[in-house]
Amino acid sequence: MSVQAIAWSPSGAVRIIDQRALPEAQIERDLESAEAVAEAIRTLQVRGAPLIGIAAAMGLVAGTRALRGSPRDVFIGTIEQLSRLLGGTRPTAVDLRWALDRMARAAAATAGDGAALWERLYAEAAAILEDERAMCRRIGQAALPLVPDGANVLTHCNAGALATGGIGTALAPIYLAHEAGRRVHVFVDETRPVLQGARLTAWELAHAGIPCTVIADAAAGALMRQARVDLALVGADRIAANGDFANKIGTYGLAVLARHHGVPFYCAAPSSTIDASLPDGDKIPIEQRPPDEVKSVAGRPVVPASVAALNPAFDVTPARYVTAYVTDRGIVQPPFGADGGAPR
């Protein structure tokens, strides 16, 4: 997979692929400030739980570059201010807070003035990016036995290179299976209302030469009934202590359909996505996005202007519908949280 969703530009800005433009165009943008990174996260130029965390960490670096000559207290105060800004952009994905907390701990443990603190932040953000790349490959390796030769895999939303710093979470075993010479075909849910499956996952897979077929979200049940789906692989934005997890809206319905039709349903996510402070999925905050995303397609209105629309960005899938989790620590079988702790 040659797609790199985020990197440092030669000038030290945060370089992203603007995912709003895909698949029509691959546009790279250089973000020079934390405010620009926050806006990119909020407007889905950057999306996907792991990638949001990486972008926020790099945004802190970009946002404090001009303060390298400042006293320590000014620099620390700015970090706290920018962390609040970045942390408020997307409430559901726990990787965002995880990355910002990691950056704050690195700063607190570093002596010296703004110059020393900035160098430490830069190193920590770079480490987060590299750690996320390695995490993706570990998830892929752990899940590889789940994707046999000839498999038809169903996915929802985008949990690939465009959502992470590496080869993805739910798409990672698909890439590694393809790399190993296995024949893999992917049914890609279009993922309304923003079409992350049709626009992003299909673009990624086509770019990598992996056969895929885009389907309307409502077609998944029919394919399962026809025994055309061997397994479902999805990502997660937050996993509660009992194994309930939040993912892109529509995931819950897929899990229920998979259980009814006897299709294995797997959730692939980094261990940083586990939020042990939440006992169950009912406590996961669900982001409500603008209704215009539902009322239009590609900027064209498809709903009467006077009609209301509801647009929850995520839903919660109870742990009882999950065949297994795949994390960078390996495969976790149910029961989840049987010892009162988070699935590990």
Secondary structure topology:
Blueprint: E1 6-8, E2 14-17, E3 28-31, H1 34-42, H2 49-64, H3 72-87, H4 94-108, H5 114-143, E4 151-155, H6 172-179, E5 184-189, H7 196-208, E6 212-215, H8 220-225, E7 231-234, E8 238-240, E9 245-248, H9 251-261, E10 265-268, E11 274-275, H10 292-295, E12 296-297, E13 300-301, E14 314-317, E15 324-327, E16 330-332
Parallel strand pairs: 4-5, 4-7, 5-6, 7-10, 8-11, 10-15
Antiparallel strand pairs: 1-2, 2-3, 8-9, 9-14, 12-13, 15-16
- Roughly how many Å apart are the termini? 28 Å
Secondary-structure element pattern, one letter each: EEEHHHHHEHEHEHEEEHEEHEEEEE
What class, by secondary structure content? Answer: alpha/beta
CATH class of the largest domain: Alpha Beta
- CATH H-level superfamily title of the largest domain: Translation initiation factor eif-2b, domain 2
- Strand percent estimate: 15-25%
Overall 3D form: globular
Q: Which fold name fills CATH's third level, the topology of the largest domain?
A: Rossmann fold
Estimate the helix proportion, in percent. Answer: 25-40%
> Order of strands across the biggest sheet?
6-5-4-7-10-15-16
Number of strands: 16
The CATH architecture term of the largest domain is 3-Layer(aba) Sandwich
Mean pLDDT: 94
Main sheet? 7 strands, mixed
Please give the domain count: 2
The number of helices is 10
Describe this structure in words.
This protein has 344 residues and is an alpha/beta fold. It has two domains: 6-138, translation initiation factor eif-2b, domain 1 (Four Helix Bundle (Hemerythrin (Met), subunit A)); 143-332, Rossmann fold (3-Layer(aba) Sandwich), CATH 3.40.50. It has ten helices and 16 strands. The protein has a seven-stranded mixed β-sheet, with helices on both faces. Helix 1 (34-42) runs parallel beside helix 3, helix 3 (72-87) runs antiparallel to helix 4 and helix 4 (94-108) packs across helix 5 (114-143).
